[in-house]
Amino acid sequence: MSNVLIVAEHLNGQLNVPATAKTVSAARALSPQKIDVIVLADAPDAIAAAAAKIDGVNEVLSVANPANAHPIAQVLAPQIAQVATGYSHVFGPSTTFGKDLMPCVAALLGVAQVSDVMAVDGPHSFKRPIYAGNAIIEVTAPADQAVVATVRVASWPAAGEGGNASVRAVNVDVALPTHTRFVGLAAGKSDRPDLQSAARVVSGGRGVGSEENFRIIYDFADKLGAAVGASRAAVDAGYVPNELQVGQTGKIIAPELYVAVGISGAIQHLTGIKDAGTIVAINKDGDAPIFEIADIGLVGDLFTILPELEKALG
Ligand code: FAD
User: For residue 302, what are the contacts with CB-CB under 8 A and spacing of at least 6?
Assistant: First the structure.
């Protein structure tokens, strides 16, 4: 029987509920005996209380330590590796946080990580995408070792919030490295919804033309209550910061509505929106590949179409 330990992602005292709840869904697909969540923070109480509400969680292990004030993989990993004894699986979300942390955990446990789990076929068999999502492979982990995996959050629904798990304070006595320390966090400030978990996303591409022109994307997104994304070409051209990049080397997202504006639809971009609900494409080139996957296609100049749509939205 499987016992799963899930690493909770959080920032500024707030649990990343979608990432954690989707990781719980992947764990539930194992039909495990229990699912525990570990919260490592300097002040974990509120985060642990939020994790305890996720359906399917049996127990939340709360590890309070001033060293856990910032999510430094090299500091968190030894603590997780110690607590992981007795668990058959250790899962984290396939977000920037999880992609940074889980390989360190796997290395300390002496196992190879399973990445980007999109389906569970058995306790040691998983499906994951390769070649920018163009092929799906079956990965089989050794049955006699713990499985350390990142979960492709876009592939899983979030577990509900009706849970009532117990919270237990855990003391972890392990030497923590000092070679990696927190210097500062550089992040764009935005009041808009978070790109990775938003229900609606409006993305702009090279066709938008400049940083100034991107205002039209922000305005339209605000009208829809949407997050803003971008193609790599738009990021590389300096129109927007790279945390907005959607795609193979950016964020993998699964909004209900995705509006691609002035984006051609390169395979590396499409891999980021594979699980999106309705895809709307606005492009002046009727032969652009984005129209092959779009549910709704509008052929025309974005600088004409977006203001018209905005007006229609009232
Ligand atoms: P373009 O391909 O230049 O398309 C611009 C589009 O805008 C065109 O279709 C044009 O018709 C349209 N347009 C122009 N003006 C207007 C107008 N006024 N009105 C309407 N439409 C207009 N790309 C990503 O996006 N994300 C990734 O994560 C990513 N990872 C990559 C990883 C690797 C290893 C490699 C090799 C590439 C990666 N790329 C990624 C780059 C990708 O291959 C494409 O180059 C990129 O997605 C193109 O961006 P774009 O569609 O904005 O630009």
Answer: 207, 208, 216, 261, 262, 282, 283, 284
pLDDT in tens, 81-110: 999 999 999 999 999 899 999 999 999 999
Are both 215 and 137 inside the same structural domain? no
Same domain flag for 160 and 208: no
What is the number of the ligand 1 atom nearest to the C-alpha of 206?
Answer: 52
Q: How many CB atoms lie within 10 A of CB 139?
A: 18
Q: Is 184 within the bounds of a domain?
A: no
Atom 1 in ligand 1: residue holding the nearest Cα = 264
Is this structure's pTM higher than 0.85? no
Please tell me whether residues 160 and 216 are part of one structural domain: no
Q: How far is the CA of 284 from the centre of ligand 1 (A)?
A: 13
In this predicted structure, what is the pLDDT of residue 161?
Answer: 94
pLDDT, residue 125, reads: 98
CA 277–ligand 1 middle distance (angstroms): 21
Range of 302's domain? 200-313
Ligand 1, residues at Cβ distance < 6 Å: 205-207, 231-234, 245-250, 262-264, 266, 268-269, 272, 282-285, 288, 301-303
Strands 119-122 and 10-11: unpaired
Q: Specify the pLDDT at position 185.
A: 86
What is the CA(234)–ligand 1 centre distance, in A?
A: 7
CA of 179 to the centre of ligand 1 (A): 39
- Cα–Cα nearest to 79, from 40, 37, 36: 40
Q: How far is residue 145's CA from residue 102's CA, in Å, rounded to a whole number?
A: 15
The CATH number of the domain where 283 resides is what? 3.40.50.1220
pLDDT band at 281 (very low <50, low <70, confident <90, very high): very high
